[in-house]
Amino acid sequence: MLEKADALTRLRTRGVGVVRRIERIIDLNYVGLIFATLFFALSVTPSLVPRDWLFQGLISGINAALGYGVGCVLEWLFRVWLRHSPKLGPRVREAVPPAWVRYAVKAAILLTAALSAGFMLVQSARWQREITALMGMEGTTTPAYLRTGLLSVAVGAAVVAVYRTLRVLVLALARQLNRWIRVPREFAPALGLLLLTIFTVTVVNGVASRALFAVANSAFSVRNDHTSVNAVQPLGPERSGSPASLARWETLGFEGRWFVSHGPSAEQISAVTGRPAREPIRAYVGLESADGPAAQAALAAEELERTGAFDREVIVVVTTTGTGWVNSLAAGAIEYMYGGDTAIVASQYSYLPSVLSFLADRGKATTAGRAVFDAVHSRWSARPPEERPQLLVYGESLGSQGSEAAFDGLSDLRAKVDGALWVGPPNSNQMWKQLVSRRDPGSREVQPMYADGLVVRFAADRADLARPSTEWRPPRIAYLQHPSDPIVWWSPDLIFSQPDWLAEPRGSDVSSQMRWWPFVTFWQVAADLTNAQGVTDGHGHRYGSLVLDGWVAIAEPPGWTAELAEKIRSELVLAEDLEREQK
């Protein structure tokens, strides 16, 4: 018996020694591990759009590292509290269990963390299949999705390594504070962390952010100078960039040159509609076409005058996304609808894509949106009312925010335009936010009803535009928004408060298992922003031919039929597919 007991003691001692050596190598904080597991588990819960294992691994690794940091801070605060507790501190120190018990608990934490992570990954694979099924996409398999765990460990470890480097800096700063200005030892690390945080935030928000956006702006300006091999300078006077244009071809930028060199011709429109057609007008002003927003807006108005746009049946003022992109399907839809008797005008305000523009150049979108609309409206309103074309406005994503900014409110909008179509509006759009917050009682945030649909309607599909069946007075305003579009639903408010769209019954393509968690949901939906278009049409930020239905709803032309609508829809979808291949 004594020999067995001695053997057991030796085995326990040897095991403790091995665990200690491993611990010294990885320096693992077990409270941090508990919170890392919790944050990882929450990160693989359903969000708005589906994720593959690679994307989820990156997101979950960062999330787990954040949880690890939270756990470490909480443990540190608890230790500080114990040191300053005259009653509880000594009791806790006296109640320390034997080493083998402590290591057994740590082993149990490790095992529980691994099993919990594995269980959540299996559940997450099932949730991902549910989301992809809602969007008509092919789902993942559970074995393939388990790779998420390995990638998350690698990413989390890398982030923690960066954190530990910062911790060394904090401790070094704390020693200097204690040495030179006699900050008490227990408060020096906290003050060092505060000073380092202030310094880091100042640098990131100031020098670093300016440098980052300057580099990004420079990088994307190179693309702006590039011209697609499938973009050829137009010769017809109806297009900017033509020999007759005031806006030279080489100044229009990558997206502007594509926009004016494509689109349906009068012959193509006639072939689809079976009716006579005119050559559509497309006016575009690039960042290099004029010096500053005011000069660009004036040049855009001059281009409309030059082309005879004010004698057309419809003028559409488009506020572009960051790079100057105009949705070709939206432009082609209105041109087919009105037999080419249209003029579309747009202006570039940034080199950056919408996500970066939203962070760095949001003010430029609103400035450009107001400047161009005001310049066009000034000339339009100077004509006798009976000689004015219909004046419509359009914006998609960040472009909708810039387009909204041209108006002081709903009354001002309705007094100045004959219709507005805004697609995938960011949650920060002021007019959109006011209308949604004042929606009719009983209507959901994902499908709001404002004033019984009398002047403004919100739609996720064609049927929504016809609801309710009561009067929709002109000028009509329509917002197209999918329940699963993260650009519409992402907001800093998600950090601390549950949004109505998660408190109310979910939208048709949002998982019923999606829940709101403080901080976590904000991070989840923020991650979805980068994958908003990685879904099929009709979901996320992919609105496809629903834009045609939006145009018909707010500005239906005479003689419109369902048969003609389907002919145009088919042509638009084919053209969009071809553009993806060629651009």
Q: What attributes characterize this protein structure?
A:
single chain; 583 residues; alpha/beta; elongated
Total number of β-strand segments?
7
Using the alpha-carbon principal axes, give the shape: elongated
Overall pLDDT score: 87
End-to-end gap: 81 Å
H/E series: HHHHHHHHHHEHEHEHHEHHEHEHEHHHHH
Can you count the helices?
A: 23
Helical coverage, percent range: 55-70%
Computed CA radius of gyration, to the nearest angstrom: 30 Å
* Regions with little confidence, pLDDT below 50 for 5+ residues: 203-209
Structural class comes to alpha/beta
β-sheet strand percentage: 5-15%
What strand line-up does the widest sheet have? Answer: 1-3-2-4-5-7-6
What is the makeup of the main sheet? 7 strands, parallel
Tell me what you see in this structure:
By secondary structure, the protein is of the alpha/beta class. Helix content is 57%, strand content 7%. The protein is built from 23 helices and seven strands. Strands 1-3-2-4-5-7-6 form a seven-stranded parallel sheet, sandwiched between helices.
